[in-house]
Design a protein that fits this description.
221 residues, alpha/beta, Rossmann fold, seven-stranded mixed sheet, two-stranded antiparallel sheet, 7 helices, 18% strand
């Protein structure tokens, strides 16, 4: 069955792209193609002009679940992805220093996501691919982790975020695309011309939200 039909798009260096669309439309497949975990049956995926033929350290994928090794401590889960000398810096950056000797089952959902993000950063990626990594958390923790991801992006990364949440997309992204039901086609592709941090109650924010929401409502109408 065809998952992604006609997606002809580019992502600029330093951009934060959010991908919206109905469940099962091919959003995760698109990320896996970019990551090199799956291969297109037609067309091609290019990274800096070269075909993507498999996974690479320059493209890190953060999944919906933390996927930490249950038999390793936080410190060792992070170290397994790269240079152990960087572990202390990442533990400090993610606020995990006091949890370095904890095991995954001892962590809250938010802390587990932080550990997963730290592990993804171990390879010094140029592109961070985010497959709804904070969608299942409560609102307060989700907003806290949105801030963490945004701070990581502002260090010079390119980010592609798959999300079901329009608010999450508009708070974090510089550009938003909306995909159709499977097989995915691009229904909307627009910049979010708002400064950070974004005021959710401002008229410009609400105007952008209304534009994207019209497209999303059309998917259900």
């Amino acid at each position: 069955m065809e998952a992604v039909a006609s997606v002809d798009m580019g992502v600029a260096e330093g951009e934060f792209l959010a991908v919206l669309g109905p469940s099962g439309c091919g959003k995760t497949t698109l990320l896996r193609l970019i990551a090199g975990l799956e291969h297109p049956t037609s067309g091609q995926i290019l990274f800096r002009g070269q075909p993507v033929r498999g996974p690479g350290r320059e493209r890190a994928l953060m999944f919906q679940e933390p996927r930490l090794f249950p038999w390793l401590t936080v410190e060792k889960n992070i170290a397994v992805a790269g240079d152990p000398a960087k572990v202390d810096v990442l533990l400090e950056t993610m606020g995990l220093t006091s949890f370095r000797h904890s095991y995954p089952h001892e962590l809250s959902g938010g802390m587990a996501r932080r550990a997963s993000l730290a592990r993804a950063l171990m390879s010094d990626p140029d592109v961070m691919l985010l497959d709804e990594p904070i969608s299942s958390l409560d609102l307060a923790v989700r907003r806290e982790l949105q801030g963490e991801v945004h701070r990581v992006w502002q260090r010079g990364l390119t980010c592609v975020l798959v999300t079901h949440e329009l608010e999450e997309a508009l708070v974090m992204a510089t550009r938003v695309i909306v995909l159709s039901p499977r097989p995915a086609k691009v229904l909307y592709d627009g910049r979010v011309p708002l400064d950070f941090p974004r005021n959710r109650r401002s008229e410009p924010y609400q105007a952008v939200k209304a534009d994207v929401n019209k497209v999303l409502e059309g998917l259900h109408g």
